[in-house]
Amino acid sequence: MKAIVEQTRIRKRRTSTRLLVTLVVFAILLTLGLINLYSAAGEATLRTQLRHLIPALLLFVGIGWVIPLRMINTYSYIFYSLTVFFLIAVLVLGYIAGGAQRWLILGPLRFQPSELAKLSIALFVAKHFYNNRTKLSYQLTELWPVLIAVGAYFVLIFIQPDFGTAGVCLLIALTQVAFIKVSISRGMLLSLLFSGLGMIAMGWQFLLRPYQKLRILNLFNPALDPSGSGYNSLQSLVAVGSGGQWGKGFLHGTQAQLQFLPARQTDFIFSVFAEEQGFWGGALIFVLFAILSYAALEIAREAKDTFNTLLAIGIGALIFLEFFINVAMVIGIFPVVGMPLPFFSYGGSFLLTICAAMGLLVAVERDTLRS
To answer: Is 139 contained in some domain?
Structure first.
């Protein structure tokens, strides 16, 4: 009996420590992001982001400490349906900017429903497998509800067009499913492989727009269109490379301060940080995101039920994938897909999404602590 009590005490102490580490890393990344945003875009943009931060932090606290996680579990399917409604509304009534129809305007509010989809798909998948938690394994054909849910999001977001966010939603769901036991034969695996290759070929031929194809080609040869589609990648590489080991110093990055670097407050904000803080500053960001991703996996490992486990995995996947894709895009090993960097990139909808995601991660950890 004493051994069980001691093990429980040790587990709760470990959980409390992990929660503290998660909160500290969250605070550090937010602070570094705001400082870097000031350097990238100036005081006016920083002020706007700080106004976005107030409701984002309220949402973080509300989800993490106020709203019971069982309530979030209960309404996961409703949240999914509401997000589908907003995504359809975008296609009909959406605000167009930069050639993309991604925003809804409701009175004084302008937001991107595709940001909600990242959280919604993680909640949907977690809820689906929680409802079927008595099953020890699944046949591939039994995953059709997840396939339909993810497919609906992918199509609705892809045609905005926003291939990057559509892909992230798909990868979040695949990451969660990877932690579920699925029985699959070798023949089925080969069929899926060849079907996937066929879909990629058809997508390249019939679905991708010319500028999207050019972005992929620029990955292999940035000099293909140096003054057009390859300009962003080339300027980003110049910024990252010119930072050296220790960087040029805060507010002294020439690519950002002289405005050679496009989208420096959103997609290419890591380039600003790397130029000013150098290799070791960039390495610090890698370490902080690695700690956060590892913490999410540990939270998932010790979660009390299937919903909490898969939700923590989905949130960890969301944060890691967006970080990985953004940095890979910035250093020229991934096509430019318009993927923001968590905690750093400017944007109200994106900041709300990241803070809500962190709130869900905290809620899962606190639920474990109470059990």
So the answer is: yes
Domain span including residue 242: 21-370
Model pLDDT, residue 254: 83
Quickly tell me which residue has 């923590």 as its tokens: 312
> Residue 72: what pLDDT?
95
Residue 283 belongs to some domain of the structure: yes
All residue ranges of the chain with pLDDT < 70 are 1-8, 10-11, 98-99, 185-189, 191-192, 194, 196, 199-200, 203-215, 217-230, 371
CA neighbor of 232 nearest in space, from 268, 266, 269, 279: 268
Regarding pTM above 0.85, the answer is: yes
- How would you write the chain as a 3-class SS string? CHHHHHHHHHHHHHHHHHHHHHHHHHHHHHHHHHHHHHHHHCHHHHHHHHHHHHHHHHHHHHHHHHCCHHHHHHCHHHHHHHHHHHHHHHHHHCEEECCEEEEEEECCEEECHHHHHHHHHHHHHHHHHHHCCCCCCEEHHHHHHHHHHHHHHHHHHHCCCCHHHHHHHHHHHHHHHHCCCEECCHHHHHHHHHHHHHHHHHHHHHHCCHHHHHHHHHHHCHHHCCCCCCHHHHHHHHHHHHCCCCCCCCCCCHHHHCCCCCCCCCCCHHHHHHHHHHHHHHHHHHHHHHHHHHHHHHHHHCCCCHHHHHHHHHHHHHHHHHHHHHHHHHCCCCCCCCCCCCCCCCCHHHHHHHHHHHHHHHHHHHHHHHC
Residue 36 lies in a domain: yes
13 part of a folded domain: no
- Asked if residue 53 lies in contact with residue 362, where contact means CB atoms within 8 angstroms, the answer is no
Q: How many domains does the chain have?
A: 1
